[in-house]
Please model this.
Amino acid sequence: MNHRTNWCLSKTLGIVALSATLGSSALLGQQDVPFANGVPVAPTGLDKHPLGDGPWYYQTGEDMDIKVELVARMEYAMAMTFLPDASLLVVTRRGKLYHIHDGGMAELAGG
Model:
């Protein structure tokens, strides 16, 4: 075999090995999902594991520690956006619109 054939063969084998590794890791990374009558059962979320009062601290690999504080409790927050004054608008799955500001929360009409 010439140099070009060896190069192509080694690249092909490398791609096959990488594909096998990625494929097997994807299969191994799957969760065990419970089924009822052949239908997957969704996890219950926080219903059975309520969130504590916090605050919580997380250490990152970049030494940029994160502090998480609870500012409002709501059910099924779906989308949010920051406003120029650093407050938040939050829409819930049920269509309610909330304005979160200064540690308080107010439901807005028209949500």
The mean pLDDT is 74. Strands lie at 35-36, 39-40, 56-58, 66-68, 77-82, 88-92, 97-101, 104-108. Residues 3-30 form one domain.
